[in-house]
Structure formats: structure tokens, C-alpha cells
Amino acid sequence: MDVKDIIKPENLVYGKSDVILDNVMHYCPGCTHGTIHKVIAEVIEEMGIQDKTIGISPVGCSVLAYNYLDIDWQQAAHGRAPALATATKRLMPEKYVFTYQGDGDLASIGTAEIMHACNRGENIVVFFVNNAIYGMTGGQMAPTTLIGMKTATTPYGRNVELNGHPLKITELIAQLPGTCYVTRQSAEAAGPVRKLKKAVRKAFENSAQKKGTSFIEIVGTCNSGWKMSPVKSNEWMKENMFPMYPLGDMKDE
Length: 253
Known about the structure:
This protein has helices at 3-6, 33-47, 81-91, 103-109, 111-120, 160-163, 169-174, 190-208, 223-226, 230-244, and strands spanning 53-57, 72-75, 96-102, 125-130, 179-186, 213-219, 248-252. The protein is of the alpha/beta class and 253 residues long. The chain has one domain (22-245): Rossmann fold, CATH 3.40.50. The chain is globular.
């Protein structure tokens, strides 16, 4: 029996989105980025906007996202994705424009960029992947690193007196008048992935309706930076990250 006789539409349980390229992913095993890519790709395909979508990726683990999603991409300097997205959307208002950023990028060097873009209400979508650490550059402390959390630059744990408090930037973003949809989701299991997909779809629809900025934080893992197995990372995230960064919608207008 030929494999084509087995893989018929009525026998297909899951099909990879055509928006996902056939490239081997460079992400560490268990990394949340791959699942997020899959969700974004599925929404783009289902909405039929592949030729109308432009992604902006800056520095960090998100920088190679263009290797995996078959859409138009631009690369921004560290933290500057919202500025480039602003220009792109204003020049081509018919396009769906999104940024794909990590916590070391968006919540640190890019804080001013994201705040002002959201305050202006640019009709873009922002995907903010928060794993509380600088993943690509060596596991240093990020603005979102938890108190007591060990990193390459806080080997004894984050100390409030020395390092300050973790930055809950999504809560700050939700207060800005230019944002229409602000939510925090995760992607560690099937249920949360379904919720994330609904959020991604809503965000792109908001952009088409010119409602303002949609901001989606995804709490994720970095098992390499955290020095844990993928399974242990998911457990640690639920026990430690979720209490500090609770999931759910913060704003939906």
C-alpha cells in the first residue's frame, strides 16, 4: 500500500500549515518558540493573509523566525521592532504587521519603543515572549527575571536591593489608551495553545479593523537558560512564573 493511500483527507488528524517552511528549527528542545510559530502560521493560513503579512524580528532568539514562517520579514535593531513596524504599517496600511520580541528585547532596551507605539495606538500586533531570561546571549538576568531566580549575572538569585523588581510590562501596556487588546497566554499544553490561537486571531482581526495596538504576552520556558529539562521547565514555569505573571485578558475593547 502506498503512503498516499493512507494519508487521505478523511484520515488526516493534523496537517502542518503551508506557512511553515520545511527548515529544521534551531531552537533548543522544549523551547516555546516553535509552538508559538505554529500557532501564528495556522492563523495566518486560516485567515488567508499570507501574502499580506509582514513580520518584524529584532535581536535575540526571535531573530531567526524568518527561517520558519513563509511571509515577508524585516529585521530590526535590538528593541526597535515597534518603530520599524510603525513605519511599515503607515506606509502599507493594507498589510498585517506584527513584531515578534523577547523579554530581553522588548522589556529592556526596547521599553521606550514599545511604550510609545502602544500609546500612539499603532494598528500592529505585538507578540512578546517572556521566559524571564536572556536566552540567546548567555542566560543573563532580564527585566522580567523573578526575585531569587539564578542567572548568569545573578548567580545567587535576583536581589531586589541590587537588581530591582521584575518588570510587569504587560500590566503597564494595558493602561495605555492606544491599546485595544492586551492579554497574557502560554503554550505549554493543548488547552493553553487553543486559547493562544484565539488570542492571535483576535489580534489580527483588531488590526484589520483599525482598533489600535494588540499586545500578546506569551509566558514561555528557556530550559537551556534555566538549566532544566523541558518537562521540569514547564513545571517550574507553572509554579513560579504564573503567580508573578498570571494568564488572562487584561484589556479587550
